[in-house]
Amino acid sequence: MKLKEIKHWLGRVNAYATEVYNAPYRSAIARAKRDQDDLFMLLVFSELMGVPNPAAFYTLELQPLMLEQFHQWHQRMGMEHSPLDHFRCC
Amino acid sequence: MNAIAMMLLGLGAMLLGYLFYSKFIAEKIYRLDPNFKTPAHEFEDGVDFVPTNKYVLWGHHFTSVAGAAPIIGPAIAVIWGWVPAFLWVVFGTIFFAGVHDAGAIWASNRNKAKSIGALTGDVVGKRARNLFMIVIFLVLLMVNAVFATAISGLLIKFPSSVVPVWGAIFVALIIGQVIFRKWMSLGMVSILGVIALYALIVAGPSMPLSLPEMTLGISDNAGWILILFGYAAIASMLPVWMLLQPRDYINGLQLFIGLILLYLAVLIAAPDISAPAINHNTPEGTPSMLPLLFVTIACGAISGFHGLVASGTTSKQLDKETDARFVGYFGAIGEGSLSLATIIAATAGFATLADWESVYTSFGQGGVAAFVTGGANILHDGVGLGEEISQTLLTVMAVLFAGTTMDTGLRLQRYIFQEWGSIYNIKWMQKGVAATLLAVASCLILAFGAGGADGSGGLLIWPLFGTTNQLLAGLTLMVITVMLVRLGRPMYFTLLPLIFLLIMTVIALLIQLKGFYLKADWFLFTLDLIVLIAAVWIALEATASLSKLRKAKQQPTD
Question: Does ipTM come in above 0.85?
Protein backbone atom coordinates (compact mmCIF):
# COMPACT_ATOMS: atom_id res chain seq x y z
CA MET A 1 0.00 0.00 0.00
CA LYS A 2 2.74 2.39 1.06
CA LEU A 3 4.84 1.56 -1.99
CA LYS A 4 1.85 2.18 -4.20
CA GLU A 5 1.34 5.61 -2.69
CA ILE A 6 4.97 6.54 -3.21
CA LYS A 7 4.80 5.37 -6.80
CA HIS A 8 1.67 7.38 -7.39
CA TRP A 9 3.27 10.43 -5.84
CA LEU A 10 6.42 10.03 -7.94
CA GLY A 11 4.30 9.70 -11.04
CA ARG A 12 2.60 12.99 -10.25
CA VAL A 13 5.92 14.73 -9.68
CA ASN A 14 7.08 13.40 -13.02
CA ALA A 15 3.97 14.62 -14.77
CA TYR A 16 4.38 18.09 -13.25
CA ALA A 17 8.06 18.20 -14.19
CA THR A 18 7.27 17.20 -17.76
CA GLU A 19 4.66 19.93 -17.98
CA VAL A 20 7.05 22.50 -16.53
CA TYR A 21 9.72 21.39 -18.98
CA ASN A 22 7.54 21.52 -22.04
CA ALA A 23 5.13 24.40 -21.47
CA PRO A 24 7.55 27.28 -22.18
CA TYR A 25 8.79 25.92 -25.49
CA ARG A 26 5.72 24.16 -26.79
CA SER A 27 4.98 26.74 -29.44
CA ALA A 28 8.56 27.22 -30.64
CA ILE A 29 9.01 23.49 -31.14
CA ALA A 30 5.62 22.99 -32.78
CA ARG A 31 6.44 25.78 -35.21
CA ALA A 32 9.81 24.27 -36.10
CA LYS A 33 8.13 20.90 -36.65
CA ARG A 34 5.54 22.50 -38.90
CA ASP A 35 8.28 24.08 -41.01
CA GLN A 36 9.93 20.69 -41.48
CA ASP A 37 6.61 19.07 -42.34
CA ASP A 38 5.99 21.74 -44.96
CA LEU A 39 9.34 20.99 -46.56
CA PHE A 40 8.49 17.31 -46.65
CA MET A 41 5.17 18.08 -48.27
CA LEU A 42 6.90 20.16 -50.90
CA LEU A 43 9.03 17.13 -51.74
CA VAL A 44 6.03 14.84 -51.95
CA PHE A 45 4.04 17.15 -54.21
CA SER A 46 6.96 18.56 -56.17
CA GLU A 47 6.09 16.78 -59.46
CA LEU A 48 2.59 18.25 -59.40
CA MET A 49 4.14 21.70 -59.23
CA GLY A 50 6.49 21.04 -62.12
CA VAL A 51 9.60 20.44 -60.07
CA PRO A 52 11.35 17.28 -61.32
CA ASN A 53 11.74 14.75 -58.55
CA PRO A 54 13.85 11.62 -59.13
CA ALA A 55 12.03 9.83 -56.33
CA ALA A 56 8.60 10.61 -57.73
CA PHE A 57 7.75 6.92 -58.01
CA TYR A 58 7.99 6.57 -54.24
CA THR A 59 6.56 9.91 -53.20
CA LEU A 60 3.48 9.20 -55.32
CA GLU A 61 2.60 6.47 -52.88
CA LEU A 62 2.74 8.92 -50.02
CA GLN A 63 0.30 11.38 -51.51
CA PRO A 64 -2.91 9.78 -50.23
CA LEU A 65 -1.37 9.60 -46.75
CA MET A 66 -0.67 13.31 -46.86
CA LEU A 67 -4.15 14.28 -47.90
CA GLU A 68 -5.27 15.54 -44.50
CA GLN A 69 -2.10 17.52 -43.96
CA PHE A 70 -2.21 18.97 -47.45
CA HIS A 71 -5.69 20.28 -46.79
CA GLN A 72 -4.55 21.97 -43.57
CA TRP A 73 -1.54 23.40 -45.35
CA HIS A 74 -3.42 25.16 -48.15
CA GLN A 75 -5.90 26.55 -45.68
CA ARG A 76 -3.08 27.86 -43.53
CA MET A 77 -1.57 29.49 -46.59
CA GLY A 78 -4.80 31.38 -47.19
CA MET A 79 -6.09 29.30 -50.13
CA GLU A 80 -9.61 28.12 -49.66
CA HIS A 81 -9.32 25.26 -52.14
CA SER A 82 -6.48 23.12 -53.37
CA PRO A 83 -4.14 25.11 -55.64
CA LEU A 84 -3.28 22.00 -57.66
CA ASP A 85 -5.51 21.08 -60.56
CA HIS A 86 -4.77 17.36 -60.37
CA PHE A 87 -5.02 17.11 -56.65
CA ARG A 88 -8.37 18.11 -55.26
CA CYS A 89 -8.84 17.55 -51.60
CA CYS A 90 -11.94 19.58 -51.03
CA MET B 1 18.87 45.77 13.09
CA ASN B 2 18.88 42.07 12.46
CA ALA B 3 18.46 40.71 8.96
CA ILE B 4 15.76 38.28 10.13
CA ALA B 5 13.57 41.26 11.06
CA MET B 6 14.05 42.75 7.60
CA MET B 7 13.28 39.42 5.97
CA LEU B 8 10.11 38.82 8.00
CA LEU B 9 8.88 42.40 7.56
CA GLY B 10 9.46 42.30 3.82
CA LEU B 11 8.04 38.85 3.14
CA GLY B 12 5.16 39.49 5.56
CA ALA B 13 4.20 42.75 3.88
CA MET B 14 4.28 41.16 0.44
CA LEU B 15 2.17 38.26 1.65
CA LEU B 16 -0.41 40.66 3.10
CA GLY B 17 -0.32 42.50 -0.22
CA TYR B 18 -1.16 39.26 -1.98
CA LEU B 19 -3.91 38.28 0.46
CA PHE B 20 -5.70 41.63 0.59
CA TYR B 21 -4.63 44.17 -2.01
CA SER B 22 -4.46 41.72 -4.89
CA LYS B 23 -7.88 40.36 -3.91
CA PHE B 24 -9.29 43.88 -4.03
CA ILE B 25 -7.63 44.60 -7.39
CA ALA B 26 -8.72 41.28 -8.87
CA GLU B 27 -12.32 41.48 -7.70
CA LYS B 28 -13.15 45.16 -7.73
CA ILE B 29 -10.94 46.69 -10.42
CA TYR B 30 -10.20 44.02 -13.01
CA ARG B 31 -13.27 42.03 -11.98
CA LEU B 32 -11.75 38.70 -12.98
CA ASP B 33 -14.51 36.33 -14.01
CA PRO B 34 -14.11 32.57 -13.48
CA ASN B 35 -16.68 31.95 -16.22
CA PHE B 36 -14.97 34.05 -18.88
CA LYS B 37 -13.85 31.86 -21.76
CA THR B 38 -10.12 32.54 -21.95
CA PRO B 39 -8.27 32.68 -25.29
CA ALA B 40 -6.46 29.48 -24.28
CA HIS B 41 -9.82 27.68 -24.53
CA GLU B 42 -11.34 29.75 -27.30
CA PHE B 43 -8.43 29.35 -29.73
CA GLU B 44 -6.91 26.15 -28.33
CA ASP B 45 -4.50 24.81 -30.96
CA GLY B 46 -1.91 22.83 -29.02
CA VAL B 47 0.76 25.25 -30.24
CA ASP B 48 0.37 28.73 -28.79
CA PHE B 49 -2.98 28.51 -27.08
CA VAL B 50 -2.90 25.77 -24.47
CA PRO B 51 -4.81 25.91 -21.16
CA THR B 52 -2.17 25.29 -18.51
CA ASN B 53 -2.29 24.41 -14.81
CA LYS B 54 -1.90 27.62 -12.82
CA TYR B 55 1.06 26.43 -10.76
CA VAL B 56 2.92 25.31 -13.87
CA LEU B 57 2.07 28.60 -15.54
CA TRP B 58 3.25 30.53 -12.49
CA GLY B 59 6.58 28.66 -12.57
CA HIS B 60 6.99 29.42 -16.25
CA HIS B 61 6.02 33.08 -15.83
CA PHE B 62 8.24 33.58 -12.79
CA THR B 63 11.33 31.98 -14.28
CA SER B 64 10.88 33.94 -17.51
CA VAL B 65 10.71 37.27 -15.75
CA ALA B 66 13.33 36.61 -13.06
CA GLY B 67 16.74 37.39 -14.47
CA ALA B 68 19.87 39.05 -13.25
CA ALA B 69 18.20 42.47 -13.14
CA PRO B 70 16.45 42.01 -9.76
CA ILE B 71 19.89 41.14 -8.40
CA ILE B 72 21.98 43.87 -10.05
CA GLY B 73 19.57 46.75 -9.39
CA PRO B 74 19.10 46.43 -5.61
CA ALA B 75 22.76 45.49 -5.16
CA ILE B 76 23.71 48.86 -6.68
CA ALA B 77 20.94 50.82 -4.97
CA VAL B 78 21.84 49.90 -1.38
CA ILE B 79 24.57 52.52 -1.73
CA TRP B 80 21.93 54.96 -0.43
CA GLY B 81 21.41 52.73 2.62
CA TRP B 82 19.20 49.70 3.03
CA VAL B 83 15.94 51.43 4.04
CA PRO B 84 15.19 53.22 0.74
CA ALA B 85 15.93 50.10 -1.32
CA PHE B 86 13.92 47.92 1.06
CA LEU B 87 10.88 50.22 1.03
CA TRP B 88 10.88 50.64 -2.74
CA VAL B 89 11.18 46.90 -3.35
CA VAL B 90 8.43 46.00 -0.88
CA PHE B 91 5.95 48.75 -1.72
CA GLY B 92 6.86 48.67 -5.39
CA THR B 93 6.04 44.97 -5.50
CA ILE B 94 2.74 45.40 -3.67
CA PHE B 95 1.34 48.53 -5.32
CA PHE B 96 3.17 48.68 -8.66
CA ALA B 97 4.55 45.40 -9.96
CA GLY B 98 1.73 43.10 -8.87
CA VAL B 99 -0.97 45.38 -10.26
CA HIS B 100 1.00 45.88 -13.48
CA ASP B 101 1.76 42.19 -14.08
CA ALA B 102 -1.72 40.91 -13.27
CA GLY B 103 -3.17 43.81 -15.26
CA ALA B 104 -1.10 42.99 -18.32
CA ILE B 105 -2.37 39.40 -18.24
CA TRP B 106 -5.95 40.62 -17.78
CA ALA B 107 -5.74 43.21 -20.55
CA SER B 108 -4.29 40.71 -22.99
CA ASN B 109 -6.73 38.01 -21.91
CA ARG B 110 -9.69 40.29 -22.63
CA ASN B 111 -8.33 41.08 -26.10
CA LYS B 112 -7.76 37.67 -27.67
CA ALA B 113 -4.39 37.30 -25.92
CA LYS B 114 -2.80 40.00 -28.06
CA SER B 115 0.60 41.28 -26.97
CA ILE B 116 0.81 44.63 -25.21
CA GLY B 117 2.45 46.08 -28.31
CA ALA B 118 -0.49 45.17 -30.51
CA LEU B 119 -2.90 46.27 -27.79
CA THR B 120 -1.30 49.70 -27.64
CA GLY B 121 -2.13 50.06 -31.31
CA ASP B 122 -5.76 49.03 -30.76
CA VAL B 123 -6.47 50.82 -27.50
CA VAL B 124 -4.36 53.98 -27.72
CA GLY B 125 -3.32 54.54 -31.32
CA LYS B 126 -0.89 53.77 -34.15
CA ARG B 127 1.71 56.32 -33.06
CA ALA B 128 1.91 54.77 -29.61
CA ARG B 129 2.46 51.41 -31.23
CA ASN B 130 5.51 52.58 -33.16
CA LEU B 131 6.83 54.12 -30.00
CA PHE B 132 6.40 50.80 -28.30
CA MET B 133 8.61 49.00 -30.85
CA ILE B 134 11.37 51.57 -30.36
CA VAL B 135 11.26 51.29 -26.57
CA ILE B 136 11.34 47.49 -26.72
CA PHE B 137 14.33 47.57 -29.03
CA LEU B 138 16.19 49.95 -26.72
CA VAL B 139 15.46 47.78 -23.67
CA LEU B 140 16.75 44.66 -25.40
CA LEU B 141 19.83 46.47 -26.66
CA MET B 142 20.72 47.78 -23.24
CA VAL B 143 19.94 44.59 -21.38
CA ASN B 144 22.36 42.63 -23.55
CA ALA B 145 25.16 45.16 -23.23
CA VAL B 146 24.74 45.53 -19.48
CA PHE B 147 24.49 41.83 -18.76
CA ALA B 148 27.54 40.99 -20.88
CA THR B 149 29.54 43.54 -18.89
CA ALA B 150 28.21 42.27 -15.57
CA ILE B 151 28.98 38.64 -16.41
CA SER B 152 32.49 39.36 -17.60
CA GLY B 153 33.15 41.31 -14.40
CA LEU B 154 31.99 38.35 -12.33
CA LEU B 155 34.01 35.82 -14.30
CA ILE B 156 37.16 37.88 -13.73
CA LYS B 157 36.49 38.54 -10.05
CA PHE B 158 35.57 34.94 -9.26
CA PRO B 159 37.76 32.71 -11.50
CA SER B 160 36.48 29.65 -9.62
CA SER B 161 33.11 30.10 -11.34
CA VAL B 162 34.41 29.85 -14.91
CA VAL B 163 34.43 26.05 -15.06
CA PRO B 164 30.94 25.59 -13.49
CA VAL B 165 29.41 28.34 -15.64
CA TRP B 166 30.53 26.82 -18.93
CA GLY B 167 30.16 23.32 -17.54
CA ALA B 168 26.50 24.08 -16.85
CA ILE B 169 26.01 24.58 -20.57
CA PHE B 170 27.37 21.12 -21.27
CA VAL B 171 25.11 19.68 -18.60
CA ALA B 172 22.20 21.39 -20.31
CA LEU B 173 23.24 20.06 -23.73
CA ILE B 174 23.34 16.51 -22.34
CA ILE B 175 19.97 16.92 -20.60
CA GLY B 176 18.52 18.16 -23.88
CA GLN B 177 19.65 15.01 -25.69
CA VAL B 178 18.51 12.69 -22.88
CA ILE B 179 15.03 14.18 -22.89
CA PHE B 180 14.79 14.44 -26.65
CA ARG B 181 15.71 10.80 -27.12
CA LYS B 182 13.52 9.77 -24.18
CA TRP B 183 16.27 7.88 -22.40
CA MET B 184 15.09 8.79 -18.92
CA SER B 185 12.09 10.27 -17.14
CA LEU B 186 12.19 13.94 -16.29
CA GLY B 187 12.13 13.46 -12.54
CA MET B 188 15.31 11.38 -12.76
CA VAL B 189 16.95 13.82 -15.17
CA SER B 190 16.18 16.76 -12.89
CA ILE B 191 17.84 15.10 -9.92
CA LEU B 192 20.90 14.02 -11.92
CA GLY B 193 21.15 17.44 -13.58
CA VAL B 194 21.08 19.31 -10.29
CA ILE B 195 23.66 16.92 -8.81
CA ALA B 196 25.93 17.43 -11.82
CA LEU B 197 25.56 21.21 -11.60
CA TYR B 198 26.35 21.30 -7.89
CA ALA B 199 29.25 18.88 -8.35
CA LEU B 200 30.70 21.37 -10.82
CA ILE B 201 30.17 24.19 -8.33
CA VAL B 202 31.95 22.26 -5.58
CA ALA B 203 34.78 21.40 -7.96
CA GLY B 204 35.04 24.99 -9.28
CA PRO B 205 37.31 26.46 -6.58
CA SER B 206 39.93 23.76 -7.18
CA MET B 207 40.27 24.69 -10.85
CA PRO B 208 40.07 28.45 -11.25
CA LEU B 209 40.41 29.72 -14.81
CA SER B 210 41.05 33.19 -16.12
CA LEU B 211 41.85 34.79 -19.45
CA PRO B 212 45.32 36.29 -19.86
CA GLU B 213 45.23 39.99 -19.03
CA MET B 214 46.06 40.95 -22.61
CA THR B 215 45.65 38.85 -25.75
CA LEU B 216 46.19 40.40 -29.16
CA GLY B 217 45.63 43.82 -27.64
CA ILE B 218 42.29 42.84 -26.11
CA SER B 219 41.89 43.08 -22.34
CA ASP B 220 40.45 40.13 -20.43
CA ASN B 221 37.21 42.00 -19.80
CA ALA B 222 36.72 42.77 -23.48
CA GLY B 223 37.71 39.19 -24.29
CA TRP B 224 34.97 37.75 -22.09
CA ILE B 225 32.41 40.13 -23.57
CA LEU B 226 33.31 38.99 -27.09
CA ILE B 227 33.18 35.32 -26.06
CA LEU B 228 29.82 35.84 -24.38
CA PHE B 229 28.27 37.42 -27.42
CA GLY B 230 29.72 34.68 -29.59
CA TYR B 231 28.09 32.12 -27.33
CA ALA B 232 24.78 33.99 -27.17
CA ALA B 233 24.66 34.32 -30.96
CA ILE B 234 25.18 30.58 -31.44
CA ALA B 235 22.76 29.68 -28.63
CA SER B 236 20.05 31.90 -30.07
CA MET B 237 20.27 30.14 -33.42
CA LEU B 238 20.35 26.50 -32.21
CA PRO B 239 17.05 24.62 -32.12
CA VAL B 240 15.49 25.46 -28.76
CA TRP B 241 15.27 21.87 -27.49
CA MET B 242 19.03 21.47 -27.71
CA LEU B 243 20.14 24.14 -25.30
CA LEU B 244 17.64 26.82 -24.33
CA GLN B 245 14.92 24.52 -23.08
CA PRO B 246 17.01 22.26 -20.80
CA ARG B 247 19.06 25.23 -19.61
CA ASP B 248 15.99 27.25 -18.66
CA TYR B 249 14.66 24.25 -16.81
CA ILE B 250 17.80 23.58 -14.80
CA ASN B 251 18.09 27.32 -14.19
CA GLY B 252 14.60 27.42 -12.74
CA LEU B 253 15.40 24.57 -10.38
CA GLN B 254 18.58 26.33 -9.35
CA LEU B 255 16.69 29.56 -8.72
CA PHE B 256 14.39 27.89 -6.21
CA ILE B 257 17.22 26.00 -4.49
CA GLY B 258 19.37 29.14 -4.31
CA LEU B 259 16.55 31.27 -2.89
CA ILE B 260 15.62 28.68 -0.28
CA LEU B 261 19.28 28.23 0.71
CA LEU B 262 19.78 31.98 1.08
CA TYR B 263 16.70 32.56 3.21
CA LEU B 264 17.47 29.48 5.29
CA ALA B 265 21.01 30.74 5.89
CA VAL B 266 19.66 34.14 6.96
CA LEU B 267 17.38 32.43 9.47
CA ILE B 268 20.20 30.32 10.92
CA ALA B 269 23.03 32.84 10.85
CA ALA B 270 20.84 35.81 11.86
CA PRO B 271 23.40 38.37 10.67
CA ASP B 272 23.19 42.00 11.73
CA ILE B 273 22.86 44.62 9.04
CA SER B 274 26.18 46.39 8.86
CA ALA B 275 25.21 48.91 6.19
CA PRO B 276 23.65 52.20 7.33
CA ALA B 277 19.85 52.55 7.25
CA ILE B 278 20.22 55.73 5.22
CA ASN B 279 23.70 56.45 3.96
CA HIS B 280 24.58 60.10 4.67
CA ASN B 281 28.17 59.39 3.76
CA THR B 282 27.72 58.45 0.10
CA PRO B 283 30.90 58.36 -2.00
CA GLU B 284 31.62 61.31 -4.20
CA GLY B 285 29.84 61.26 -7.53
CA THR B 286 26.81 59.35 -6.23
CA PRO B 287 23.72 60.87 -7.81
CA SER B 288 20.85 61.98 -5.63
CA MET B 289 18.65 59.19 -4.33
CA LEU B 290 15.37 60.74 -5.39
CA PRO B 291 14.67 59.97 -8.62
CA LEU B 292 17.66 57.66 -9.27
CA LEU B 293 16.59 55.00 -6.75
CA PHE B 294 13.41 54.43 -8.72
CA VAL B 295 15.22 53.68 -11.95
CA THR B 296 18.18 51.83 -10.45
CA ILE B 297 15.80 49.23 -9.04
CA ALA B 298 13.50 48.41 -11.91
CA CYS B 299 12.99 44.65 -11.84
CA GLY B 300 12.07 43.72 -8.29
CA ALA B 301 9.87 46.80 -7.86
CA ILE B 302 8.23 47.22 -11.26
CA SER B 303 9.47 46.22 -14.66
CA GLY B 304 8.09 46.69 -18.13
CA PHE B 305 9.72 43.47 -19.27
CA HIS B 306 7.13 41.55 -17.25
CA GLY B 307 4.35 43.03 -19.35
CA LEU B 308 5.95 41.57 -22.48
CA VAL B 309 6.08 38.09 -20.96
CA ALA B 310 2.63 38.40 -19.40
CA SER B 311 0.93 39.42 -22.63
CA GLY B 312 3.17 37.47 -24.99
CA THR B 313 3.05 33.91 -23.73
CA THR B 314 1.38 33.75 -20.33
CA SER B 315 -2.01 35.12 -21.41
CA LYS B 316 -2.24 32.52 -24.19
CA GLN B 317 -2.02 29.72 -21.64
CA LEU B 318 -4.36 31.03 -18.96
CA ASP B 319 -6.80 28.31 -17.95
CA LYS B 320 -9.19 30.50 -15.94
CA GLU B 321 -9.26 34.28 -15.84
CA THR B 322 -9.08 34.26 -12.05
CA ASP B 323 -5.67 32.56 -12.34
CA ALA B 324 -4.29 35.93 -13.47
CA ARG B 325 -4.18 37.01 -9.83
CA PHE B 326 -1.98 34.12 -8.74
CA VAL B 327 0.20 33.99 -11.84
CA GLY B 328 0.70 37.74 -12.27
CA TYR B 329 0.64 39.11 -8.76
CA PHE B 330 2.39 36.20 -7.09
CA GLY B 331 4.93 36.15 -9.91
CA ALA B 332 5.78 39.74 -9.02
CA ILE B 333 6.09 38.70 -5.38
CA GLY B 334 8.52 35.94 -6.37
CA GLU B 335 10.67 38.53 -8.05
CA GLY B 336 10.34 40.90 -5.11
CA SER B 337 11.56 38.18 -2.76
CA LEU B 338 14.62 37.65 -4.97
CA SER B 339 15.37 41.37 -4.70
CA LEU B 340 14.82 41.27 -0.96
CA ALA B 341 17.32 38.43 -0.65
CA THR B 342 19.77 40.55 -2.65
CA ILE B 343 19.31 43.53 -0.34
CA ILE B 344 19.91 41.31 2.70
CA ALA B 345 23.02 39.79 1.12
CA ALA B 346 24.46 43.15 0.10
CA THR B 347 23.85 44.83 3.47
CA ALA B 348 24.02 42.12 6.13
CA GLY B 349 26.71 39.99 4.50
CA PHE B 350 29.55 42.22 5.65
CA ALA B 351 31.00 42.03 9.12
CA THR B 352 31.53 45.74 9.73
CA LEU B 353 30.52 49.06 8.26
CA ALA B 354 34.12 49.60 7.11
CA ASP B 355 33.99 46.30 5.18
CA TRP B 356 30.79 47.41 3.54
CA GLU B 357 32.15 50.84 2.66
CA SER B 358 35.27 49.32 1.14
CA VAL B 359 33.02 47.53 -1.37
CA TYR B 360 30.76 50.48 -2.13
CA THR B 361 33.50 52.93 -3.04
CA SER B 362 31.61 54.67 -5.81
CA PHE B 363 28.25 54.58 -7.56
CA GLY B 364 27.93 51.50 -9.76
CA GLN B 365 30.54 49.69 -7.67
CA GLY B 366 29.45 46.80 -5.52
CA GLY B 367 26.65 45.56 -7.69
CA VAL B 368 26.48 41.83 -8.28
CA ALA B 369 29.94 41.30 -6.79
CA ALA B 370 28.65 42.69 -3.47
CA PHE B 371 25.69 40.33 -3.67
CA VAL B 372 28.04 37.40 -4.25
CA THR B 373 30.53 38.33 -1.52
CA GLY B 374 27.89 39.24 1.06
CA GLY B 375 25.61 36.35 0.21
CA ALA B 376 28.55 33.93 0.40
CA ASN B 377 29.38 35.17 3.90
CA ILE B 378 25.80 34.53 5.01
CA LEU B 379 25.72 31.08 3.35
CA HIS B 380 29.04 30.23 4.99
CA ASP B 381 27.81 31.23 8.46
CA GLY B 382 24.31 29.85 8.03
CA VAL B 383 24.48 26.52 6.26
CA GLY B 384 28.19 25.96 6.63
CA LEU B 385 29.16 25.86 2.98
CA GLY B 386 32.80 26.74 2.30
CA GLU B 387 33.26 30.42 1.52
CA GLU B 388 34.71 29.88 -1.92
CA ILE B 389 32.08 27.31 -2.78
CA SER B 390 29.34 29.71 -1.67
CA GLN B 391 30.84 32.44 -3.83
CA THR B 392 30.97 30.10 -6.79
CA LEU B 393 27.38 29.03 -6.18
CA LEU B 394 26.02 32.57 -6.16
CA THR B 395 28.16 33.64 -9.10
CA VAL B 396 26.89 30.72 -11.14
CA MET B 397 23.34 31.63 -10.19
CA ALA B 398 23.75 35.24 -11.29
CA VAL B 399 25.68 34.41 -14.46
CA LEU B 400 23.25 31.73 -15.61
CA PHE B 401 20.40 34.18 -15.14
CA ALA B 402 22.08 36.90 -17.08
CA GLY B 403 23.10 34.42 -19.78
CA THR B 404 19.54 33.18 -20.23
CA THR B 405 18.29 36.72 -20.63
CA MET B 406 21.08 37.49 -23.08
CA ASP B 407 20.29 34.79 -25.58
CA THR B 408 16.55 35.30 -25.27
CA GLY B 409 17.18 39.01 -25.80
CA LEU B 410 19.31 38.38 -28.88
CA ARG B 411 16.66 36.06 -30.26
CA LEU B 412 13.99 38.73 -29.85
CA GLN B 413 16.26 41.40 -31.34
CA ARG B 414 16.85 39.13 -34.31
CA TYR B 415 13.08 38.90 -34.85
CA ILE B 416 12.81 42.69 -34.78
CA PHE B 417 15.57 43.04 -37.38
CA GLN B 418 13.93 40.37 -39.54
CA GLU B 419 10.62 42.19 -39.24
CA TRP B 420 12.25 45.45 -40.28
CA GLY B 421 13.82 43.55 -43.17
CA SER B 422 10.42 42.47 -44.43
CA ILE B 423 8.78 45.86 -43.80
CA TYR B 424 11.44 47.74 -45.76
CA ASN B 425 12.00 44.90 -48.22
CA ILE B 426 15.66 44.32 -47.45
CA LYS B 427 16.28 40.72 -48.49
CA TRP B 428 19.52 39.98 -46.64
CA MET B 429 18.20 41.32 -43.36
CA GLN B 430 15.44 38.72 -43.35
CA LYS B 431 17.99 35.89 -43.06
CA GLY B 432 18.50 34.50 -39.55
CA VAL B 433 22.30 34.65 -39.53
CA ALA B 434 22.53 38.19 -40.88
CA ALA B 435 19.89 39.49 -38.47
CA THR B 436 21.66 37.82 -35.53
CA LEU B 437 24.96 39.37 -36.55
CA LEU B 438 23.30 42.79 -36.77
CA ALA B 439 21.84 42.31 -33.29
CA VAL B 440 25.22 41.29 -31.86
CA ALA B 441 26.97 44.21 -33.58
CA SER B 442 24.51 46.75 -32.19
CA CYS B 443 24.97 45.39 -28.66
CA LEU B 444 28.76 45.40 -29.00
CA ILE B 445 28.72 49.02 -30.15
CA LEU B 446 26.83 49.90 -27.00
CA ALA B 447 28.98 47.78 -24.66
CA PHE B 448 32.22 49.24 -25.95
CA GLY B 449 30.95 52.64 -27.05
CA ALA B 450 29.73 53.43 -23.56
CA GLY B 451 32.98 52.87 -21.76
CA GLY B 452 36.08 52.56 -23.90
CA ALA B 453 37.96 49.64 -25.41
CA ASP B 454 38.10 47.44 -22.33
CA GLY B 455 34.31 47.27 -22.20
CA SER B 456 34.20 48.18 -18.53
CA GLY B 457 31.74 50.99 -19.09
CA GLY B 458 28.75 48.87 -19.90
CA LEU B 459 27.39 49.25 -16.38
CA LEU B 460 27.30 53.03 -16.85
CA ILE B 461 24.10 52.55 -18.76
CA TRP B 462 22.44 50.60 -15.94
CA PRO B 463 20.28 53.56 -14.77
CA LEU B 464 19.44 54.29 -18.40
CA PHE B 465 18.33 50.69 -18.83
CA GLY B 466 16.19 51.03 -15.70
CA THR B 467 14.59 54.16 -17.10
CA THR B 468 13.70 52.51 -20.38
CA ASN B 469 12.32 49.52 -18.56
CA GLN B 470 10.12 51.80 -16.44
CA LEU B 471 8.89 53.53 -19.59
CA LEU B 472 7.80 50.19 -20.95
CA ALA B 473 5.93 49.56 -17.70
CA GLY B 474 4.40 53.02 -18.09
CA LEU B 475 3.13 52.12 -21.57
CA THR B 476 1.50 48.96 -20.23
CA LEU B 477 -0.08 50.84 -17.32
CA MET B 478 -1.39 53.38 -19.82
CA VAL B 479 -3.10 50.65 -21.84
CA ILE B 480 -4.66 49.17 -18.69
CA THR B 481 -5.82 52.57 -17.47
CA VAL B 482 -7.44 53.46 -20.78
CA MET B 483 -9.20 50.09 -20.78
CA LEU B 484 -10.46 50.68 -17.23
CA VAL B 485 -11.75 54.16 -18.07
CA ARG B 486 -13.62 52.78 -21.06
CA LEU B 487 -15.24 50.23 -18.80
CA GLY B 488 -16.18 52.99 -16.37
CA ARG B 489 -14.15 51.60 -13.49
CA PRO B 490 -11.84 53.41 -11.04
CA MET B 491 -8.57 54.26 -12.76
CA TYR B 492 -6.49 55.61 -9.88
CA PHE B 493 -4.96 52.26 -8.92
CA THR B 494 -3.11 52.17 -12.22
CA LEU B 495 -3.02 55.87 -13.05
CA LEU B 496 -1.18 56.94 -9.89
CA PRO B 497 1.67 54.42 -10.40
CA LEU B 498 1.83 55.57 -14.02
CA ILE B 499 2.14 59.25 -13.06
CA PHE B 500 4.70 58.47 -10.37
CA LEU B 501 6.80 56.42 -12.80
CA LEU B 502 6.70 59.03 -15.54
CA ILE B 503 7.70 61.87 -13.21
CA MET B 504 10.57 59.88 -11.70
CA THR B 505 11.89 58.66 -15.05
CA VAL B 506 11.76 62.09 -16.68
CA ILE B 507 13.61 63.74 -13.78
CA ALA B 508 16.15 60.90 -13.73
CA LEU B 509 16.69 61.26 -17.47
CA LEU B 510 17.23 65.02 -17.17
CA ILE B 511 19.76 64.56 -14.37
CA GLN B 512 21.65 61.92 -16.34
CA LEU B 513 21.47 64.05 -19.47
CA LYS B 514 23.20 66.86 -17.64
CA GLY B 515 25.82 64.43 -16.34
CA PHE B 516 26.61 63.08 -19.82
CA TYR B 517 26.76 66.64 -21.19
CA LEU B 518 29.25 67.74 -18.55
CA LYS B 519 31.37 64.66 -19.23
CA ALA B 520 31.03 65.35 -22.98
CA ASP B 521 29.95 61.76 -23.46
CA TRP B 522 28.00 62.34 -26.67
CA PHE B 523 27.23 58.69 -27.28
CA LEU B 524 25.30 58.26 -24.06
CA PHE B 525 23.95 61.80 -24.35
CA THR B 526 22.23 60.89 -27.61
CA LEU B 527 20.90 57.64 -26.18
CA ASP B 528 19.54 59.48 -23.15
CA LEU B 529 17.93 62.07 -25.41
CA ILE B 530 16.15 59.39 -27.43
CA VAL B 531 14.76 57.80 -24.26
CA LEU B 532 13.74 61.22 -22.96
CA ILE B 533 11.82 61.99 -26.14
CA ALA B 534 10.08 58.62 -25.84
CA ALA B 535 9.16 59.37 -22.21
CA VAL B 536 7.66 62.78 -23.00
CA TRP B 537 5.85 61.25 -25.94
CA ILE B 538 4.29 58.59 -23.71
CA ALA B 539 3.15 61.25 -21.26
CA LEU B 540 1.53 63.22 -24.10
CA GLU B 541 -0.15 60.14 -25.58
CA ALA B 542 -1.52 59.19 -22.17
CA THR B 543 -2.91 62.66 -21.52
CA ALA B 544 -4.39 62.90 -24.99
CA SER B 545 -6.17 59.57 -24.91
CA LEU B 546 -7.46 60.07 -21.37
CA SER B 547 -8.82 63.56 -22.03
CA LYS B 548 -10.41 62.35 -25.26
CA LEU B 549 -12.22 59.65 -23.29
CA ARG B 550 -13.26 62.19 -20.69
CA LYS B 551 -14.73 64.54 -23.28
CA ALA B 552 -16.57 61.68 -24.92
CA LYS B 553 -18.05 60.82 -21.55
CA GLN B 554 -19.15 64.36 -20.76
CA GLN B 555 -20.98 64.77 -24.04
CA PRO B 556 -24.23 62.89 -23.68
CA THR B 557 -24.78 60.61 -26.62
CA ASP B 558 -28.16 61.32 -28.09
Answer: no
